[in-house]
Structures are given as C-alpha cells and as structure tokens.
Design the sequence.
C-alpha cells in the first residue's frame, strides 16, 4: 500500500510538471536568453522584459564573470551612486538610473537610451548596448516563447540552426525553471520592484504572439516612408489601437525624420531599410549605408529590407530579411475610404495563411487607414507584431 502511494505521488508530480510545461508553451511568452551558442539559465536574473516598446535584459547578461561566456565586456553597479557601467578596453558606457540617461564617460557624449530597474535589478536596452559594443541580437520565435540571442563575431550557427541544436537545452531550462519556481508569477511578466531607489514601476509589455484564434489571419503592415506628411497621424491611429507595424526608411529619410524615428521605436514599432539599386551590389551598398545611419541616429540596426523583387533571393542568401509583399495597399488620391478598404480586401481575400500589406506614409494613407483597419478586423484579418522571425 505504501509503495502504491509513493508511486502515485511520483506520477502526480510528473503530471503537474508536464501541465506546467504545457501551460508555458501555450502562453508563448517565456523569454530565454542566449549568448552566441550558449543558452543561459532561465531565472529572474536572465529573463528579458519589455518596457515602453523597448527590449531590456539584465546588465549582467553582457558580463562574462556572471554568465561564464565572454563578450569582452565587464560591468559595475553602484546602488549608492545609482549607475551601471559597461566597459571593455576601448569603450565605456554609463547608465544613470536616477536621471534616466546614458553617456560615454570617456568622450562625454550622450547616448540615446536609459536603464530601468526590475526586482531591484538594473536592466539595460539590448539594442543600445549591442550597437555600442559592435554586437548584434535577434528575437527568435520558438514554440515555447522567444529566445533573445546576443551575438558577437565569434558566433557560429545561424538562428535557425541554433534553435534546432538547442532543443534539449530549451526543454531542460524550462523544466528546471518551473520545478524551482512554482510560486513564480506568469512567465515573461516580472513583478514590480519594491526597491525604493528605483524608478516608478512601468507596465511590462510582452510582445503578443500571432492571434491564437485559428480563424484569424495574421496580417503585417509595412509603410514606405518617402512622403512622411501623414506619418504622425498614422502613428496616432496605430497607437490608439495598440497595433504595430514596420516602417521602411532609406538613409536620407532616417536623418530627415529622426524625431519620428524615435517615436516609432519608442511605441514598439519596427524599423526596416528601403533601397533600390540598379544591381544587387548597388542595393546592398545602400542598405549598408542606411544601417550605418540608423546606428548613428538611433543606436540600432536591422536586417529587414524592402528591395526589388528580382534582388530578394540574393540578398536573403546574404542574411537580409526581405519584405515579401502580398499586396500593395497604397491608396489613390480622392478614393473614398470605404472604396479603398473594399479594394484592398478583394486583393487579399483567398487562400493566404498570412498577409503582408505595403502602404505609404502619405496624408492619403493617414486618411483611409482607420477604415482599412476596421475592414480587416471585420473580415478576420488580425494585425500582428512584425518580428523579424515572422517576416
């Protein structure tokens, strides 16, 4: 009888564990962290978080003395002074937690970005730190949630091959996390800090997955930012509905519309690059120049590009993620909003499992966009977050 009870108890523990893991997978918002080919332990010390549309990771993720994986970066944190410093032999950046600023102590230059505090622990914006130290990062969509992967020049595997190779590690991290943290809050959502020295708690923003309703068709919106007269109104419309899009700029546009650029990034939208050279080599040069401009203006980089169809395959083979348009939704001047929305719907209705719409950022688009969004929603097309792994 005792043996039966012991075996029954073990079975119950296993069932509960499987239930927890299945719940985590269903939630789709667990965030793991990887550095090159190494998946970090899944704890509150390594769980990324979103705030104000910006992705943050604990500052210790970049320090090899904490992770055991060297990126050539060290760190220091002074609670009394309220600052976090990341540095290597050539560069240094300091986040002032009290003032919400960042600067280079060596050159005294201001850096666009700020750190936040979660659970009494400083978090830094991953895009800003990666850009400053010449690293890259990606947000990889997996069945269990997401992997935020920080990469140096020593990286070996592509993201797709890395996910295939790391399946056992992913399952192991999830199993250990839920065994050790049964009293944890919902995965991916960190509780507000009680540290009196921290900033006012902000709501953590978890990037939603594609709609779980199988009748809803994921729909991605892209805006060509050449004529930007309607861009501010377009952002107002999208932000009022908590919907996200990707905005494509060329190098000149990134410099010209830098104020709107910061609003786009700060609202959780994505930035892509737009280029059209006579040859693939010419387009590649334009994309690289635009990425350099993006790094200078916004301390960010991207691999998403809007390029001529004939050049897509070659650039994708080089690592660019090229926008694959389902239909152009750029409105004609004078067309009524309802007529426009019906025309777009007629173009995309059919057998598509995902839809990619290209618009522009003109005042005409700003005028008809609310009606288009209403039409898409009514017909079962759900506007989805344009992560690089979904384009």
Sequence:
């Amino acid at each position: 009888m005792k043996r039966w009870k012991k075996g029954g108890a073990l079975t119950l523990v296993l069932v509960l564990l499987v239930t927890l893991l299945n719940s985590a997978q269903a939630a789709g918002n667990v965030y793991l962290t990887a550095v090159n080919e190494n998946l970090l332990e899944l704890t509150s010390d390594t769980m990324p978080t979103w705030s104000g549309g910006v992705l943050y990771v604990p500052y210790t993720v970049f320090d090899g003395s904490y992770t055991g994986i060297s990126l050539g970066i060290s760190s220091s944190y002074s609670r009394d002074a309220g600052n976090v410093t990341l540095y290597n032999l050539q560069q240094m950046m300091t986040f002032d937690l009290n003032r919400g600023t960042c600067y280079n102590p060596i050159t005294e230059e201001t850096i666009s970005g700020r750190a936040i505090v979660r659970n009494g622990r400083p978090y830094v914006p991953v895009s800003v730190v990666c850009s400053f130290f010449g690293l890259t990062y990606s947000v990889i969509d997996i069945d269990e949630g997401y992997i935020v992967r920080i990469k140096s020049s020593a990286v070996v595997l592509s993201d797709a091959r890395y996910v295939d190779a790391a399946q056992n590690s992913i399952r192991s991290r999830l199993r250990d996390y839920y065994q050790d943290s049964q009293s944890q809050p919902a995965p991916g959502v960190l509780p507000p800090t009680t540290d009196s020295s921290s900033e006012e708690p902000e709501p953590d923003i978890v990037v939603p997955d594609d709609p779980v309703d199988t009748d809803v068709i994921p729909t991605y919106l892209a805006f060509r930012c050449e004529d930007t007269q309607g861009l501010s109104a377009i952002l107002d419309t999208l932000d009022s509905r908590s919907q996200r899009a990707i905005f494509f700029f060329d190098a000149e546009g990134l410099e010209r519309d830098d104020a709107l650029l910061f609003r786009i990034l700060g609202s959780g939208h994505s930035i892509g690059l737009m280029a059209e050279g006579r040859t693939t080599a010419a387009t590649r040069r334009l994309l690289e120049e635009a990425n350099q401009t993006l790094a200078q203006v916004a301390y960010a980089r991207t691999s998403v590009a809007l390029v001529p169809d004939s050049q897509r395959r070659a650039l994708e083979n080089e690592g660019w993620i090229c926008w694959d348009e389902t239909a152009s939704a750029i409105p004609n001047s004078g067309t009524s909003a309802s007529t426009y929305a019906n025309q777009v719907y007629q173009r995309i209705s059919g057998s598509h499992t995902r839809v990619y719409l290209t618009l522009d950022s003109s005042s005409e688009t700003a005028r008809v966009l609310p009606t288009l969004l209403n039409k898409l929603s009514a017909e079962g097309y759900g506007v989805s977050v344009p992560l690089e792994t979904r384009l």
User: Anything to note?
Assistant: Confidence is low (pLDDT under 50) at residues 1-28, 183-214. The longest strand covers residues 217-224. The chain is about 35% helix and 25% strand.
